[in-house]
Structures are given as structure tokens and as C-alpha cells.
Amino acid sequence: MVRNENTSRTSSVKFAGKENLESIAKCQRRAFPASLSSAMGVTYLQKMLEWYIVQPTAFLFYLETEEGLCAAYCGGFVVDGSLETGSASGMLQHSFNQAVRAFVVRPWLVLHKEMRAKASFTLRNVRRRLGLVDQRGEKMISADIPQPAEPYTGLVVIGTDPAYRGKGYGTLLLKEFEEISKQKGVKLMRLTVNAFNHQAIKSYKRNGWVTVIEKNKALVMEKKI
Fold first, then answer.
1. C-alpha radius of gyration, the chain, whole number
2. Number of C-alpha atoms within 13 angstroms, CB side, residue 15?
3. CA–CA separation, 225 vs 219, rounded Å?
């Protein structure tokens, strides 16, 4: 694990196990309070995050404070053609039953803006869950975004508790993500970020990431290692 002298006295980077998921889920709710997944509750988030642990090509790590709290976290997976679905569909399929329970308890969430934006994605995954979609030949990643010929690590999520921002934790997580990628023998990293998330984009650029595609109000960024 990468260590940073400026942060090592207050936190340490650790790989997540199932016993850490509640703490990480609570951190995610604090980091992204307006997101649909946060509104669905900690129990749902724990099940969703569990995908990173049970999926062999995925990984999840976090920064733990001296008090044992999750201050920041990051998750990704190796994209090498071995998965039939991407991370979003994979997590939804893994947490499907818990997602249904969350909507039963909180029916107003069907009006959440993310539900409207992801209606086709959600319907496709419901049909897949019911066995109404033949997954054979279905592309894992959207066909309108060119994919690298070589395997790469996809950075899926990175978040920091607002109480711990400004301490360099984001950079520390990105360095750890790069180190894990190297250990897995991957020479390319990729992520997608909202084009209006200027603060995150600035951080990625500062850490050596470059924009390779700009489409549908999103940027695809890469870094070779």
C-alpha cells in the first residue's frame, strides 16, 4: 500500500472486507448525499459495495482514521473481457433484491432524478434479472465509446467524507489505485467523469490523467503507467 508522510499519522490505506462495508457505506452517504444510491440507505449500499469483494476482477480500498472511521474510499476493476456486464450492471444485479426492498420502503424514490435519467438502464437490468434478456453477445460497455485494445483498470468510484477533504486523501487514493494496477500487470487506467465536475477533473489532471473522449456531458480520462 502507498503511504504518504503527510497523511500516515491520521490514516492508513486498507483493502476492504465485508466487515468494513458498513463504515464505507456511511462514508459514501456523506460524500454523495444527493445520490440515488445514498437515498436507498446504508443496507443497500453495503450490498452494492459487496460486489467489489465478491467479483474476482474488482477491488475496493479505503482510508481508515485513527478512530477507525472510513475517511475516503476507492473502487475499480480490471476490464479484460472476462465480464459479461460493466460495473454498474454488475452491482445492480448483485444488489437487486436489496434494491427492491429499498424501493418498497421508500416508494418516492421512483421520482428521483437519477431514476429518470437511468430509466432504460434500470429496465434493461430488470429484464435481465427476470431472464428476459439474452446476455450472449451483449456489449459490456456502451458501443458508442471506443474501447482500448489492451486490458485496463477502470476507476469506478472515489469519494471523500467532507470532514476530511483538503488533506490530500484524493491524491493518495489515486496513487494507490495506480499501484494496484501495476501489481495486476495493467498498463492503462481509465475513468469517466461528469464534464461539469471541475474539481474532480482538476484533481485527475494534476495526477497525470488526460482526457481522451468527450461525449454526452462526460469525459473519459486515461493514464498510462
1. 17
2. 9
3. 20
